[in-house]
Amino acid sequence: MRILAAMSGGVDSSVAAARMVDAGHDVVGVHLALSSTPATLRAGSRGCCSKEDAADARRVADVLGIPFYVWDFAEKFTQDVIEDFVSSYARGETPNPCVRCNQRIKFSALAAKAVALGFDAVATGHYARLCGGRLRRAVDRDKDQSYVLAVLSADQLRHAAFPIGDTPKAQIRAEAAGRGLAVADKPDSHDICFIPSGNTRAFLGERIGVRRGTVVDATGTVLAEHDGVHNFTIGQRKGLGIGGPGPDGRPRYVTAIDADTGTVRVGDVADLEVWGLRGRAPVFPAGTVPAGPLECVVQVRAHGETVGAVAELVGGELVVRLCAPLRGVARGQTLVLYRPDPDGDEVIGSATIAATSAAR
C-alpha cells in the first residue's frame, strides 16, 4: 500500500511511520505547516507545532529512508480550526480544537489530498485502534485518543491507519530509542498549539474584543460586570470577579452562559449536574445509524469519566439520557458514545453538545 505518514515531529508519529515502513508499505512522510507566521509558534518542543518540529520530522524521515515533504495547510487551519475556536467561545461554548483539527484538517483536507495523489491511507501517531473498520480505544487507556477521533466518518476511517494504538506509550518511547530516533525522549504536547503563550483568555480577548456583560446569581442579582463571555466556561470557579463565595460560604461556579445578553450565571456545585444532552451534527464512525434507543456509555471530555446512557437519534440530533449525572458540561464540547460491552472500547457515535438538561 502507498501510505502517507503524517509526521508531527513527535515520538508517536515517528514510530507510526517506522512501523509502516517495517510492514513493507511504500511510505512518504509529510509535515503540516499550520501557521503562516512560523516565528510566532512556541519553541522548546512543547507541542505539535513548535518551531523545531518540522526539522525533527525531517531527521526521522532521513533515518527511515523515506521521502519527506512539508505541506502548507496554514490558511485551512486558520479558517477551520482557529476561527472556529474563537467564534465558538464568542457564542459561550467550550470547543475542543483537537477534535476540529482531526475532523477538518488531518482526516479531511489532508486525507483528500493524499487520496487524490494516489495514496491508500494516512497513517498518524494517534492512540486508537481500527478493527474491521470500527474505531476502538487504544490499549494504553491513559493515552487513548479515540475521543478526539470519534468525529470521523466511516469513509474517512477507510483511509486511516493508527499503527501504535496496540502499544503502551512507554514501549513506544523504548522502540523509538531502539531505532535511534532522536525524538525518543521528546515531551508530549499538552497546550493548544496555536496559543504560544498558553494564555487562552488573552488570545480570545485580542480577537473578540470587549463585549461587556454581567455575572448574576440564581436570583438574577448582579454580582459583577465582565468584558466578555469568552472569559468563562461552565464549571469555572476562579476568576469570576465576584469577590468570594456565596452567602452560605460555599464556592460558586459558572452554571450558565448566555452570549446574546452577555449574562454569566453562577450557582452551587449541585447546579452543575446534568441528566440529559442534546448533540448536533451526529457522526457514526462505523457507518451504522441507530434505528431506535441505544444503550451506551457516554464521555464528554478527552480523558473524562464515562457514564451509562441511552441515546436516540431524534430529528437529526442525538438525544442522550444519562443514568448518572455529569457535572460541568458545556455547549460546544463533544459527546462520544461507546458500546457498553465489558471492554467499552468501541466508538458508536459522536456529536457536538448543543444543549444540556438538569431534568431526570
From TrEMBL:
Mark the transmembrane ranges: none
Catalyzed reactions per annotation? S-sulfanyl-L-cysteinyl-[protein] + uridine(34) in tRNA + AH2 + ATP = 2-thiouridine(34) in tRNA + L-cysteinyl-[protein] + A + AMP + diphosphate + H(+)
Q: Which CDD domains match?
A: MnmA_TRMU-like (cd01998)
Q: Which residues form the tRNA-specific 2-thiouridylase MnmA-like C-terminal domain?
A: 281-353
Pfam families, from UniProt? Answer: tRNA_Me_trans, tRNA_Me_trans_C, tRNA_Me_trans_M
> Active site at which residues?
C101, C193
Q: What is any one GO biological process for this UniProt entry?
A: tRNA wobble position uridine thiolation
- Cellular component GO terms held in the UniProt record: cytoplasm
UniProt keyword Cytoplasm present = yes
* Molecular function terms from GO: ATP binding; tRNA binding; tRNA-uridine 2-sulfurtransferase activity
Q: Where is this site: Interaction with tRNA?
A: H126, Q333
List every stretch annotated Interaction with tRNA. 143-145
Q: What is its main location?
A: cytoplasm
Q: Which residues bind ATP?
A: A6, M7, S8, G9, G10, V11, D12, S13, L32, G125
Annotated ranges, domain tRNA-specific 2-thiouridylase MnmA-like central? 202-268
For this protein, the record's InterPro entries field holds: MnmA-like, MnmA-like_C, MnmA-like_central, MnmA-like_central_sf, Rossmann-like_a/b/a_fold
Q: Which UniProt keywords are listed?
A: ATP-binding, Cytoplasm, Disulfide bond, Nucleotide-binding, RNA-binding, Transferase, tRNA processing, tRNA-binding
Report the enzyme's class at the first EC level.
transferase
Tell me where it resides.
Cytoplasm
Q: Which SUPFAM superfamilies match?
A: Adenine nucleotide alpha hydrolases-like
EC assignment: the record states: 2.8.1.13
* Its job: Catalyzes the 2-thiolation of uridine at the wobble position (U34) of tRNA, leading to the formation of s(2)U34.
The text of the family note is: Belongs to the MnmA/TRMU family.
Give the protein's recorded name: tRNA-specific 2-thiouridylase MnmA
Name the gene that codes for it: mnmA
